[in-house]
Structure formats: C-alpha cells, structure tokens
User: Fold this.
Amino acid sequence: MKVVATLGPALALDVADAESTAELRQQAEGCTRCDLYRNATQIVFGEGAENAGIVLVGEQPGDREDLTGRPFVGPAGHLLDHCLEEAGLDRERCYVTNAVKHFKFTPRGKRRLHAKPNAGEIRRCAWWLGAEVNILEPKLVVALGASALYALLGPKVKLTPERGHILQPANHPPVLVTIHPSFLLRIRDEAERERQRRAFVSDLHKAAEVQPR
Ligand code: URA
Assistant:
C-alpha cells in the first residue's frame, strides 16, 4: 500500500451532519449546490449496506440511473455487476455511489448524451461523497475512473500510473484505483476489450480480498 499526501475535495471535507446514509440521502433530495439539479429528473444518491466494508465510487448517474433514481443500473452498471461477480465481490454487501449525484447531459434530438462533470461540479458534490465515506467508515473505497479519483484524492493523483494500486491517504480509508466500466464499453477492438476487462476484474479482485466470503 502506497501512502499519498493529498486529499481530494470529498475526503478533505471531513463532514457528516447525519447519523446514517438514509438521513443523508433525505438531506440531499433538495440539493442545489451546483446547477445540475435543474435539468436532472432526480438526485441519484448512493445505496447499499450501511455496514458495507467497500464503497464503490463512479462518476455520475447516466440516463437510466436518472430515470430510476438508482446508481449503476444501466449498461455500465450491468457490466460492473458481471465484473464484480467474476472478482468474487457481492454488490449487495457493498455501497455504490457516484462523485456527482445528478445526471449531466447534452440533449441530442430525443437522446440525452452523457456530459462529463467539471471540477467545480465535482467539488460541490464532494460534500455528499465525503459525508457518505465518513458515515460508512469502509475498509476500502474503490475509485472507478478519473472523476471519482479526483473527488477522493485530488488532481495530483493520476489514474494511469496508479491504476490497480491501493493508495493510503492520511486518516482516511485506503483507495483502490481502477478504471470506470464505461471505458470498457467504448473499446471497439474485441481482443483489447477483453484484455482490459480482465485487468479490471483483476483490480476488483484486490477489493474482494477485503470482503471475506
Ligand atoms: N456511470 C456512473 O459513473 N455511475 C452510474 O451510476 C452509472 C453510470
């Protein structure tokens, strides 16, 4: 495990004005910390076991998540579920959340195309992610992709060199760095997609060691 000197906006906050994630979720319902609430259908808060040893952090809800109000239930979520299972991780015993809790999109005809949240939006939403981590006190946080990594450990920690590593920030749970499952969905070449999928499962396997069967 490698020690890191920086904290991202979520871990740096050190706030938790609630006893449980259910209470926190209620507080977040009316969130207007950034403008993303204006066009989203609803907030998509984290969900999962209150005693979860592992917290999985994605980027932001997609179209399906925005409509259902639940994280990782669309195509990236299905792929994540398969990879978690293959790695021996039980999603039911994890807590699954996002760096940003409202769907950001660009309308294109009838479709809503995913738009990447910017650093300001991630910083504003870090209030909720930081509080979720503080309440749950997990054994491990898994950063799925660059936005989650930014929220947890800040701009100096880069995904590519740290991918697959577990980083230990001071006074906070360790962070396993890996890719976002939607990265796999974008790879055209089948062999390369399979190679990357296996590498992702192998990263997740490190988290499975923290969650005994
Ligand atoms: N991508 C994410 O990062 N989070 C979700 O909940 C769905 C897709």
